[in-house]
Design a protein that fits this description.
elongated; about 45% helix; about 475 residues; single chain; 5-stranded mixed beta sheet; two-stranded antiparallel sheet
Length: about 475
């Protein structure tokens, strides 16, 4: 029966039947409108998510989205650019230039008299800094054969162990190949092009891959030492990011400190990968990470990243505008500023009274949020009723209170997990610059070598010199303790 027929039937049945029919139709339409409005709001909220109000990285914002104008940082009040009293940096003249060119006047600029025998009054110096034309050094090794005058046995000189082929690349050349690919993140083709333009050296892609494999093998001991040191560190940072490996999505995991970096890749993201890598399972110190469930399932102490939490609070504030959210944001930022000021002043901890004040405010704002967002009523269906995003966040703020406020009690614990996020950033740059990895072996090569490079950079070593030491058979061992 069509809607028209239903309306006519209700009309013919009398006024009461007509009213009941209209009420039923209006109720059904209101329910459908309410459902559709909720779906639209949910989709709109999802579209409004970006790196400033969610866990999404800045690389996911896309070209259409500009950085959000709202910032948690306060204005310093200073003008842009160099500040008054800044010493500045000026390149100075060197005492021993490579070459000197004298510009001597031949005749007087006024009368044209000859100045060849005129006395010199002074000199004005100017220097041009330039890069010499690169050249390829080729060292030929010759094993000389000699016959013994007594027994006529022919004895030949011995080549050094590292000279095993008629033609091969030296340690510095191989280090430069790895440097360009793993540190500067050039793909194979551009690496060959760069070496050709600079040095007239055109290695094959197979040679580049062999250099990676050789560095990977020789850095096994160094990586093991870095991993062991991280397991004994007081605080470690943990995170992971997606990466394409052999055409599929895999994951690169990082465990790091301000001095050490360890990368590992795995086909999985969660607990299976954590157990396979093994580093986190035996960590003696506190882990800093986001509130991802596989990290929370690990034993021992942990701290949660408050930068992630602030972004979630901002997103929730933009959606609901509840008063407790802004109060909690200001409280967390005040805690952060107070701890930073105390650390800069040489304090080892905050006064107990000050910590208690912060704790009380945290409790008060959470209670406001819990009152404004009561738990959902039972639906009679199996399973836990669906909660609002605000209630889910509040439950986490209550459950993981100690981990969220860990930085308030232990100055070794940072406010955020920015260290791990900075260490993973180059993985995203690598993906943009040269794509994913062709095989799991290539991903393993990159992770071990990049971990070594990152550690060298953190400790102030020259990356190229460090890689050269790898190919000479004596890798530079970074400092393993703070």
């Amino acid at each position: 029966m069509s809607l028209r027929d239903e309306i006519l039937a209700a009309y013919q049945a009398g006024p009461e039947a007509t009213i009941a029919f209209v009420e039923a139709v209006v109720t059904a339409l209101q329910q459908e409108l309410s459902s559709l409005s909720a779906q639209v709001a949910q989709l709109q909220a999802r579209l409004n998510k970006d790196s400033h109000n969610s866990h999404q990285p800045p690389s996911s914002n896309g070209p259409a989205k500009r950085p959000h104008p709202r910032s948690l940082r306060k204005r310093s009040g200073k003008k842009r650019g160099g500040q008054a009293g800044h010493p500045g940096v000026t390149r100075c003249l060197v005492d021993n230039p490579t070459a000197t060119v004298q510009h001597v006047p031949a005749v007087c600029a006024e009368c044209g008299a000859d100045l060849e025998t005129a006395p010199e009054l002074s000199r004005e110096r100017r220097q041009v800094f330039d890069i010499p034309e690169p050249r390829l050094d080729v060292t030929e090794h010759q094993a000389v054969h000699k016959a013994c005058p007594a027994c006529q046995t022919v004895t030949s000189g011995r080549f050094p162990p590292e000279v095993s082929q008629p033609v091969q690349f030296g340690a510095r050349a191989q280090a430069t190949m790895v440097y360009l690919q793993t540190y500067q993140l050039l793909p194979f083709e551009r690496t060959v092009e760069c070496l050709g333009d600079l040095f007239g050296l055109y290695p094959s892609e197979g040679t580049l891959a062999s250099a990676q494999a050789r560095a990977y093998t020789r850095l096994a001991g160094v990586e093991q030492a870095i991993g062991a040191a991280l397991q004994q560190a007081d605080v470690v940072h943990v995170d992971e990011t997606g990466q394409r490996v052999a055409g599929r999505t895999a994951w690169v995991h990082v465990v790091s400190t301000a001095l050490l970096t360890f990368y590992a890749h795995h086909a999985k993201r969660g607990r299976e990968a954590i157990d396979a890598i093994g580093l986190l399972v035996g960590c003696a110190g506190r882990r800093v990470h986001d509130a991802w469930a596989p990290y929370l399932s690990l034993p021992r102490a942990y701290a949660l990243c408050n930068a992630h939490l602030l972004r979630e609070l901002i997103g929730l504030d933009e959606e609901s505008g509840q008063a407790w959210i802004q109060k909690l944001i200001r409280l967390l930022l005040s805690m952060k500023a107070t701890v930073e000021a105390a650390r800069a002043a040489g304090q080892a901890e905050l006064p107990a009274k000050q910590r208690a004040g912060f704790e009380a405010a945290y409790t008060r704002f959470l209670n406001e949020g819990l009152l404004a967002n009561p738990p959902p009523k039972p639906t009679g269906k199996r399973g836990r009723p669906r909660q609002t995003p605000a209630r889910n966040l509040l439950d986490r703020l209550v459950t993981h209170r100690a981990a969220i406020l860990a930085f308030l009690y232990d100055f070794r614990v940072p406010f955020d997990n920015n260290q791990a996020e900075r260490d993973l950033r180059m993985l995203k740059v690598k993906h943009k610059a040269s794509g994913g990895f062709r095989s799991p072996e290539a991903a393993a090569y990159f992770c071990r070598i990049r971990g070594y490079i990152s550690t060298l950079r953190k400790q102030g070593y020259s990356v190229l010199d460090g890689l050269t030491s790898v190919f000479t058979g004596q890798p530079v061992t970074p400092r393993l303790q703070a």
